[in-house]
Specification:
The protein has a domain of 152 residues. The protein contains 21 helices and 13 strands. By secondary structure, it is mainly alpha-helical.
Length: 578
């Protein structure tokens, strides 16, 4: 009965959100995705982190587990004592992580060549230690995940892979792009090819790449970087045969975004098609079930399914969660005001714009001119749409567009400059306008990294946290300028981030997923869980910057470490030299 009610709610939700009709949930597990067992265990809070339970493999067939649970529920009239619920879980589930085994990549090298480009001996030694971490983050699935997939929330992958670290023991979509960047600098192209193959297999199976490698992530994706991953791999290997084998799968993934995440925006009588994050499924996220349920309890019952869908869309964005999405309620800092699907995001559309340009190049390389022309036109249309809908000439940046209120969100987020990183802009002067935008928002005053926002909501994708991929978006975006001044600022920002990561590593012998930049660099906080160590994309971005600026970066006191006090002098001198 509960399942029927849920289906009806999802249908109504799809109608309420507009565009697409609600689709059948891609995960049918009554243990890992929905159902009374999931509800009872998660609301009892048997574990400090809801993710722990949904990552635990079953000890026996799911039908048997559900039958035994039904008997337990009936015996206690749906009010199972905590001790008996705990005993049931211990009897029917195994500890998390049982389905994975440690894996040392076969192509791992002790001293990749890029290390020799790093002048500072301390930074070079540190980079060597980061190269060692790839071995700790390597995972391979056990054969039983293939032979008995119904007993696992893990989605089977043929090839081994690198995980982010900490609580994240499965692969994640957009994390893997920066992991791959680092792996290729470490000369591990075969590992990258295997990870790419896993993603391509997922598109073949599901039509898209899920948020992460668990069945409970199937309802949502993450920022679409698969095409860029392929480009990255091709640049390092020239493996055109691999591209030829998989070009249609790349197209299939972009079709998923076109068919399921498109939105039409009218500006001054002209209609533009752009994309948004949008997940037309209600119900709490299984890995954050109790938090989502408790948050929904603060709202009228009629508003709860919409809240859960918007939380899932926020998770799809990768920014889970941020003031970027808190635009729908009387309290702008409350998570219950999340309306992710109401916004047309700068970064998502820049990533897709980049992907369309790359697809045109790929098809040209393969001699398929009609398909090349198709994607060349899609790229041109999106670049024009970005200019018309999201660009603000006066401020010198792009901004998320609020569909409902027909206005841009002018708050600062590093994502506002993603088109520079993605190469999706037509005026070379936009890079230097972006530098003025950073100055106007006093972003260059932050010594330890670029903040994720200027609002402190307690969410992890807000101030005072700084995240590695967002540093990369800004630094490599600015580095595209021909202006020595803008180039100098890009280097300065790289120096700041390297020093923060190096100093924290020197104190704690660990890399973190995010950093608190408010009072000296420290591991970050906020959000739904404790800060995690590892950490795949942080390692990747550090290696990118050490490779790019290794002859200039320093680990100790230097001009770069004196920011922000001397930054104005640096900029003035570089401007005068220009």
């Amino acid at each position: 009965m509960a399942g029927r009610i849920c289906e009806l709610a999802l249908l109504l939700l799809g109608l309420a959100l507009g565009s697409q009709e609600a689709l059948p949930p891609p995960c049918e597990s009554q243990i890992y995705c929905f159902g009374e067992l999931l509800h009872q265990v998660q609301m009892a809070k048997l574990y400090p982190d809801d993710k722990e339970f949904v990552d635990m493999p079953l000890s026996t067939a799911p039908d048997q587990v559900l039958r035994n649970f039904d008997r337990l529920v009936e015996a206690h009239n749906y009010s199972i004592p905590r001790e008996q619920l705990q005993a049931f879980v211990h009897q029917h589930f195994q500890a998390k992580g049982q389905e994975l085994q440690a894996w040392t990549p076969g192509d791992w090298k002790d001293s990749p060549k890029f290390l020799q480009k790093i002048s500072d001996p301390k930074l070079r030694a540190w980079a060597g230690q980061l190269n060692q971490i790839w071995k700790k983050l390597g995972k391979k699935m056990k054969p039983e995940v293939l032979s008995h997939p119904e007993r696992f929330s893990l989605i089977y992958s043929k090839q081994p892979f690198i995980v982010p670290g900490g609580r994240f023991v499965e692969f994640y979509y957009w994390d893997s792009y920066w992991v791959m960047e680092g792996l290729l600098l470490s000369e591990m192209a075969e590992t990258v090819k295997g990870m790419l193959q896993n993603f391509l297999d997922l598109v073949q199976t599901y039509g898209h790449i899920p948020n992460g490698g668990r069945v409970y992530y199937l309802q949502r994706s993450q920022p679409p970087l698969l095409t860029l991953m392929m480009h990255l791999y091709l640049t390092h290997t020239g493996d055109i045969a691999f591209l030829r084998e998989n070009i249609e799968t790349l197209a299939l993934e972009l079709n998923f975004w076109a068919q399921n995440r498109s939105i039409s925006v009218d500006i001054e009588g002209q209609s533009y098609v752009l994309n948004r994050y949008y997940v037309p499924y209600g119900g709490p996220r299984p890995e954050s079930y109790s938090k989502d349920t408790e948050l929904a309890d603060t709202l009228p019952e009629a508003a709860r399914e919409l809240l859960w869908a918007e939380l899932k869309a926020g998770a799809e964005s990768g920014w889970d969660f941020s003031s970027r999405w808190l635009v729908g309620g009387p309290n702008p800092n409350a998570l219950s005001s999340i309306r992710t699907s109401r916004l047309v995001p700068v970064d998502l559309n820049a990533f897709l714009c980049q992907a369309e340009a790359l697809m045109s190049t790929f098809y040209t390389t393969l001699g398929e001119q009609a398909q090349a022309a198709k994607y060349r036109n899609l790229h041109a249309q999106r670049e024009a749409a970005l200019r018309a809908v999201l660009w603000d000439e006066e401020k010198g940046a792009w901004f998320d567009y609020d569909i409902e209120n027909r206005k841009k969100n002018h708050e600062f987020y590093p994502s506002n400059l993603t088109p520079l990183w993605a190469g999706c802009f037509s005026d070379p002067g936009d890079v230097d306008k972006a530098l003025k935008y950073l100055e106007d928002n006093q972003i260059l005053n932050y010594q330890h990294g670029i903040p994720t926002s200027l609002r402190n909501t307690g969410q992890q994708w807000d101030f005072p946290n700084a995240w590695a991929p967002l540093q990369d978006l800004i630094i490599r975006g600015l580095a595209k300028s021909s202006s020595p001044r803008t180039q100098q600022v890009a280097f300065q920002l790289a120096q700041n981030w390297i020093r923060t990561n190096f100093d924290v590593y020197s104190q704690k012998s660990a890399m973190y997923e995010k950093y608190d930049i408010s009072s000296g660099g420290q591991p970050g906080g906020g959000g739904e869980y404790e800060v995690q160590e590892g950490f795949g994309w942080t390692n990747g971005v550090v290696l990118i910057l050490l490779d790019r600026y290794g002859d200039q970066l320093t680990s100790g006191t230097s001009l770069a470490s004196l920011a922000p006090h001397c930054l104005g002098v640096v900029l003035l001198l570089s401007l005068l030299s220009w």
